Amino acid sequence: MIGIGGIGMSALASILSDMGNKVSGSDKEESEILKNLRKKGVEASIGHGAPFEGEKDLVVYSSAIRDSNPEILEAKKKNIRIIHRIELLKMIMEEYGRVIGVTGTHGKTTITAMSALLAEKAGFDPTVLIGGESVHFESNAKFGTGGTLVSEVDESDGKFVILNRVTHVIMPNLEKEHMEHYSDEEDLRAAVGRFLSAQPENGVFFHRAEDPNLRKLSPCFRGRIRTFGFSDEADVRASGVDIKPFKIDFDCFNRGTKLGRFTLNMAGVHNVANAAAVISLGIELGIDIKIIMDTLASYKSVKRRFEVIGDVKGARVVEDYAHHPTEIKATISAAYSLRPRRIISVFQPHRYTRTRSFYKDFSSAFLGSDEVILTDVYSASEDRIEGADAKSIYDEMVKEKTVPVSFLKKEKIPEYLCANVKDGDLVLIMGAGDIGKVGHEFVARLKNEK
Questions:
Q1: Which of 46, 178, 217, 431 is the most exposed place for a label (fewest CB within 10 A)?
Q2: What is the pLDDT of residues 94-137, one digit of tens each?
Q3: Which of 298, 317, 347 is the last residue of a domain?
């Protein structure tokens, strides 16, 4: 498995190993994910150049791996079968009678993790593949023997259209994203339409009632449609939302019948919509409402999803995976519910292509912050695009005078925060790259200050 340390690849590697396969792989740098895989008996090496040892009957690669990768070239030379990771996911899906697949632009990981926990609590003993590390499973993967697979389905590279065994499709939203692959938003919608039309006729499609793209695409699905959200048109509707710091209470109705008052011990009203998706799934699966309630009340966020990484000297530091303007807005909104004195947002743009597509949107996405600190783009293996960098966001913010903004090299940010963060401040560390290291270094420095 080339790129075995990636969040999707590592989950697949873990499941394959638990299924009894001999798994090895490589990645460019060491990580906790690789260390955990080694504990399971997976051979995970650093660097892409070592010759294959022993017999290999399959080579799997991720979208981050280029055709020029030396291990790809060696596999071709040795006539070893080579497949993309989505083809491997398809092969695994074929082993399960019930496949719950979560896709869409935002919220996939949270809904997948919530759905997996619900299936576990309901006694389904599911196999689980999550795009983040679950606190409950202590991993991004779990092998089960109950005939149910719960999997996050990545739409970023368009390869998900080959999947055709998803019996329960959940989509919370769909908007412009991943323009590194899609030519425009219509191209993205067309791909989702192909994916939906390929799923079984006896399946169910759960989608957010308020999303215009999903409403237009729902006729592509040949099975039944169930909607969720906040509007009166939603089959499963949330209302009466009461937000407190790290606690949200809300009423939930199923086609007009009140199910009860639910509690989430997390921040962000967007998570109420995520929970409504899971409630809708639970109803469809015949799970007792009390089990659904108890599961959601006990749910703890996946790592890097509004994760508090430190409460030090009166300041709170939160890390979040937000890397799209819509996600940044939701994260800042969630931060408001904690009632901080100031919100200081630290953001590392992810991909040059995304920065090029959204630099103007990023400028307004930080509204509500008292200060924004930008740093260099995390390339995610993309080649540099001239003009598509953090400076384009910075220049737009200065021109529009949206929020006070500064640009700092990543290694300078902890020192700056130590000098400027005060009692009562909330520091948001946002991005899908390696910006989290900044937050942890800042917390460590505060703890060591006398």
A1: 46
A2: 999 999 999 999 999 999 999 999 999 999 999 999 999 999 99
A3: 298
Does the annotation count 109 as an active-site position?
A: yes
300 a catalytic residue: no
**Catalytic pick among 71, 120, 133, 152:** 152
Do 78 and 194 lie in a common domain? no
1 found inside a domain: no
**Three state DSSP letters for the chain:** CECCCCHHHHHHHHHHHHCCCCCEEEECCCCHHHHHHHHCCCEEEECCCCCCCCCCCCEEECCCCCCCCHHHHHHHHCCCCEEEHHHHHHHHHCCCCEEEEECCCCCHHHHHHHHHHHHHHCCCCCEEEEEEEECCCCEEEECCCCCEEEEECCCCCCHHHHCCCCCEEEECCCCCCCCCCCCCHHHHHHHHHHHHHCCCCCCEEEEECCCHHHHHHHHHCCCEEEEEECCCCCCEEEEEEEEECCEEEEEEEECCEEEEEEEECCCCCHHHHHHHHHHHHHHHCCCCHHHHHHHHHHCCCCCCCCEEEEEECCEEEEEECCCCHHHHHHHHHHHHCCCCCEEEEEECCECHHHHHHHHHHHHHHCECECEEEECCCECCCCCCCCCCCHHHHHHHHHHHCCCCEEECCHHHHHHHHHHHCCCCEEEEEECCCCCHHHHHHHHHHHHHCC
- Residue-range definition of the domain harbouring residue 77: 7-85
Active site residue 360: no
> Among 71, 108, 127, 142, which one carries the catalytic annotation?
108
Shared-domain flag, residues 325 and 444: yes
Q: Mind listing the pLDDT tens digit for each residue in 163-192?
A: 999 999 999 999 988 888 898 999 999 999
- Of the candidates 103, 109, 355, 375, the residue annotated as catalytic is 109
